[in-house]
């Protein structure tokens, strides 16, 4: 037998006072979203399709009327297929060789990333970091696969210096390459 404070069906944690509210509130929210979608379409059209969710939210606040936060505006914009213009260009950092027969870099360690002793197997990578003013610093890293310490060497405009070494005595990158490995 259900107590007076429980929902009309057994096992429900929902109170009787809130049991019937979900459908009407969902309908009201959908109607409000449709009204907001019409305002968003107008603001997007007035901006010649350039404004995204943050600017459209600001425009809606300037107009007055019911105000929504930027997350709700973004959700509604996604649902109706609107998006703003992105002005930032994507930078292409890796350009494939147009020749399909071009040789790929060989796998010198045979995908075996284990080493049985120190200073026998290294892997590395190179990348560049923007240092401002249109200049870049190239960062090369070497990792000894036996102990996994990272060695880094920075080179910028002909200047080369080694990053502080780990306290474990090991050969430097220069010594490693000079030894013929």
* Rough outline: elongated
Q: Specify the structural class.
A: alpha+beta
Largest beta sheet, briefly? 4 strands, antiparallel
In whole angstroms, the N-to-C terminal distance is 83 Å
Helix content: 25-40%
* SS elements, strand count: 4
Report strand %. 15-25%
Mean pLDDT: 75
Low-confidence stretches: 1-12, 149-169
Lateral arrangement of strands in the main beta sheet: 1-2-3-4
- The H-and-E topology, N to C, reads as HHHEEEEH
Measured on Cα atoms, how large is the radius of gyration? Answer: 31 Å
Number of helical stretches of at least 4 residues: 4
What topology does this entry show?
Layout: H1 22-46, H2 53-63, H3 70-80, E1 122-132, E2 135-144, E3 150-156, E4 159-162, H4 173-178
Antiparallel strand pairs: 1-2, 2-3, 3-4
Helix pairs in contact: 1-2, 1-3, 2-3
């Amino acid at each position: 037998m259900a107590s007076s404070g429980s929902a009309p069906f057994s096992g429900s944690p929902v109170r009787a006072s809130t049991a019937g509210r979900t459908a009407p509130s969902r309908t009201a929210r959908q109607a409000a979203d449709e009204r907001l979608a019409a305002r968003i379409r107008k603001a997007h059209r007035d901006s010649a399709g350039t404004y995204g969710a943050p600017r459209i939210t600001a425009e809606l606040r300037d107009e007055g009327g019911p105000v929504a936060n930027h997350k709700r505006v973004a959700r509604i914009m996604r649902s109706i297929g609107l998006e703003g213009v992105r002005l930032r260009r994507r930078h292409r950092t890796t350009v494939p060789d147009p020749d399909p027969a071009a040789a790929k870099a060989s796998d010198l360690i045979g995908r075996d990333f284990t080493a049985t002793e120190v200073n026998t197997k290294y892997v590395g990578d190179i990348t560049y970091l923007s240092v401002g003013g249109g200049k870049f610093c190239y960062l090369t890293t070497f990792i000894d696969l036996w102990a996994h310490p990272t060695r880094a060497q920075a080179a910028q405009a002909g200047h080369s210096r080694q990053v502080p070494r780990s306290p474990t005595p090991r050969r430097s990158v220069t010594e490693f390459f000079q030894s013929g490995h």
